[in-house]
Amino acid sequence: MNNPWQHFTQYLKPTIQSTVIAQQQWLAECLAYNQQSAYGQHYHFASIHNIAEYQAQVPVTNYELLSPWIEKLLQGETNQLFNGEVVAFEKTGGSYSGGKLFPYSARGLKDFRHALLNWLAELIAQYKITQGKVYWALSPATAQPQTTANGIAIGGGDSLYLGNENLAAFMALSAVPLSVGQVNSVEDWQLLTLYYLLCSDDLVIISIWSPSFLIQLLKAIQQQQNKLLDLLNNGGMVAGHILEKDVGAAQRLQQYLSQQQTQIIWPNLALISCWADASSAMQAKVLADYFPYPDIQPKGLLSTEAVITVPNQANEAVLCTASNFYEFLDKQGKIYLAHELEVQQSYQVIVTTNSGLYRYNTTDIVACLGYQQNRPILKFVGRAGIVSDLVGEKLTESFVNQCLAPLKGFAMLCTNKQQCSYILLIDKNYFAENIHILITIEQALCNNPQYEYARKLNQLAPLTYKVIDVPEKQYLTWQLAKGKRLGDIKIPALFLGDWKKVFQA
Fold first, then answer.
1. Spatial separation of the C-alpha atoms in residues 196 and 206, rounded to whole Å
2. What is the reported pTM?
3. Cα–Cα distance list, 342 to 7, 383, 458 (Å)
């Protein structure tokens, strides 16, 4: 094919509509298209003529309320939450029956693509990219492919999200063959990924989810250096992949091992896209130490349920007003539209999608930082559903994120129910850098009046900390054993489970 970078420039779409008009138009089209679905008939979509009527007739919902409709889709029924058939289901974590299955429609996936491909096209224009490779994070296939009883895929391939029309260009740009994502062994997957990345001195973009994903790969270069040097100098075979020798890559690796500068391996790397907000902020700081020269762009808010924001050229996460309909719930329970948000205020995101989520409370909390061309700039700050309450203090994830923000590296606040207190787990490698900050963490927690009151009454014992060796690796291993995909694992700032079952000091 012709230059694959050129292929993606067609998706660069300037925002010309006002947020109000774009949101009104999107909602009207969504309701009109899905009015004959069972859900649309139940809530009389055909009689809705404006946003106010939509809010009056259709309730705010959650997964538990939608589960009867989703169950019918899982049994093979059609036209339930949306008009037409389910293209695929996607599974995400959650307490509901061990996980949640969300249906995707063709129109819903098109909305997702609109935001994703426009973001990629903007990157190409901003960095003037015409050649080179991209590393799109590919997790190992640690679980067997699943389908519903009626044969509908659970978890889609790259073509599901990108579209068949874009798959060839996507594959042409990928530094790591997509077949690596089908490797079952984590060890073989890691070795193959590193081999292909080390051979890609023309790498220009890295797109991953968690910063810890890339940090662990870099650490593995040290651990696997002998195997990697052998493969690069002599070639070989790993998990059915025939690997050619690359003496130049071997020389770059030798130089990197002695100097520890990633620019030696990837001299053309311009951008790393990853989570960098909320609980990922501390890991993003560590990643910046490994990569001082490329830009690190905080990824927008993309979840299984919907795409909410994507970054603009100033690395600000802007609302995708042409991909879904959004509402925002403040702490007092009042609902706002996208153009009504107040700067420096926080809201829970309520989303309506073409994949059957109507006024769905994502429990994602965002802070409005301003506006770009009348679209709100939103920063992800945490999840509303994660709250620790030992004696009435009610610590939320977003609050804990703020308290731990000055720390560098891994940091996780855990409950110590036996002592009725909290324990802060920190990375052994960053203990020296963080030691002067540790005394300020409980002071920050005391900005929560209930926590401060409980400490004064000795209802809560003082905060303690414990130094953990390779904590990211231990947490990732625990999540992988539960069947999570490596690239999807996010390290939380507030952990409500039994940390002793996850970490060894």
1. 13
2. 0.87
3. 38, 20, 38
